[in-house]
Write a structure and sequence with these properties.
4 helices; 144 residues
Length: 144
Amino acid sequence: MTKTKTRHATSRSAAQDLQKEACKLFSIITGVPWGSSRDDNAEIKPRQSGQAGVDVVISTRVQTMLAEVGFPCACECKNQKIWDLQRAIKQARANAKSDDWILIMKRRSKFKEERIDPVVVLDLEAFKMLVKRLAFIFDTKEEE
């Protein structure tokens, strides 16, 4: 395998790791287990490599659950050396069924010691809804 193919495969693998991490988070929020990209019965799963669409596939039932807790979204994952945030947001919006999207990005580094953790980019209106929902949850806990 050539050096270019090896780098591409490594990059793809890192992006798939981000997809799996996102699946775990959606699973925690909903209580619905996540599965592999090849599992037809999984309601939360990473998109198979090379397929068009959102990077985390979420069933209609689970999308409804997320919407009910104030967090409907489509998830896009990026693992790149150089971030083109505008382009990534455009892709996330294009893949989303609604106006709600989330983008998880990680900057690839040439050096292992230069570890850079993933970041989440979220539409401001979706973030406001999330904050309101969290505020409601914490207000309710204080009353108990």
